[in-house]
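Entry 12.
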Amino acid sequence: MVERNLAKVEVAGSSPVSRSETRSPTSAAATWGFAFVDPVVHRAGMTRTGSTRSRTTPVAPHHARPPSRGHRRAASWLAAVTLLVGCPKQGDEAKAEGAATGIRIDAERFRVELTEDDHAKGGAAPLVTIVVYSDYGCPPCARLWQELEHLLEDYGDDLRVVVRSFTVPGHGRGEQAAEAALAAEAQGKFWEMHARLFAQGGDFDRPTLRAHAEALGLDVPRFLDDLDTGTQTARRIRDRRSATTLGVAGLPSMFINGLYLAGYVDEATLHGILDEEIKRARGLLDDGVPRAELYATMMRTAATKRVGEPEAAAALRAERDQAQAQADAAKPTTIIEPRGDARYRIEPGASGLRGEADAPVVIVAFVDFECPFCRKAWKEELAALLERHRSDVAYSVRQLPLPIHTAARGAAKAALAAGQQGKFWEFHDRLLAHEGAVGRSSFIAWAKELGLDEAAFLAALDDPATEAVVAADEKLAVAVGVNGTPGYFVNGRYLGGFVPGTLSGVVDEELARAASLAATTPKSKRFATDMAEAIPESEFPNR
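Predicted 3D structure (tokens):
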């Protein structure tokens, strides 16, 4: 199938070639345009000569070469752009040949905020900033990046290109590729990985990403651990959220000083747009705007609505957002912790019980396996306490991996995966005994040492059902008010954090209470009776 790019652009005073080159004009017309450009054909144009690289400049049908820069005249540069080459966010939207994303662009600018850790190439104080959303598995995105690389060379410090990830389901594991680039960034090789991923295209499976890491000389075990433990997931999701907030619907998508273009745009068209934007920026400089503040100045008056959103809809959304903000402001700003004088219905989790099933005292702990206080509590008190009361005290773990510990979520899932082969507690002990960094390679090594079926272990580790168990424990923790680790419930009584001796003291109190009730409540029924009388989840303080 031949994809076609319909781009109608009217430009005055713009050049589709490098500003450093000169060619004999084919016409003295002051404006030029493109219509029905075939992207398969239009790359076979003139060879660029005013540059150290060799590539072709797209030449469209009915192309009239503009006069030299000194004779160009100012005019309105853009009427509309309709692009038919791109990656839709929904796979069904592009099933039929010729399916397209229709975009109208006029003088309206959209506010696209930059962040300190954005990936940017080009000038530090440019005249034009392009923010581009793309997916490494999207072919038009790769073609657009080639054009942007050319423009960065042509415009030097006058241009800055910011790249953000907006992954599309079905495009060859684009999410893994995006996180691979971020994992490479952690070792100072973002742009090198970025280039390799776009150059490759296709399916970004684990062996392929490993090969890229090896070729770049990365610390491969660290790179793979970053991928496997989701170290970069939050960063990728942040980029995706910014795209959805802006209303981006297809790929690639660009904001050129806030002007929105969706789909692949050829280099000649981009030259025309950039030249006009540079004129506008220089006008702001003449008005006294500092060069370093040009982008921020443009964004101050840019629209905050979503692209393609009618004014009436934008007003309604603003009203709704304001109401939501007021409602959020009325909510407690901190989690309400459980009361010390109450019992809460917190029962054993997926870990099962460590100890006797009829133990009258049950400790349920919310644990983060990277939390130093969880480790300290286990080593200095809890392990010995369970050993002393083997027949009377049982122990269960619920997962609460904290965002500040990047490998904690992976560790939680690894323990649960080991539990599916009856080795949760052995894995639990390995994790809490370990000092230092952990990752997938550590998990696999311990699984082998424990005699687990490696394939089954890895399948369980990556199973969405395992992630669902972790998420359910986190939800329960928030509801009851546990906002840190460790968090213990001793027959429903809450203890937050680790203070040496405190946990043992509460356990002793519960054992004494169980003994005093032995005549009326059998040992095997003591915990169940406490849970029946405890505050139910429906009445937890943060429901």
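Annotation: The CA atoms of residues 347 and 364 lie 7 Å apart. Confidence is low (pLDDT under 50) at residues 1-85, 89-105.
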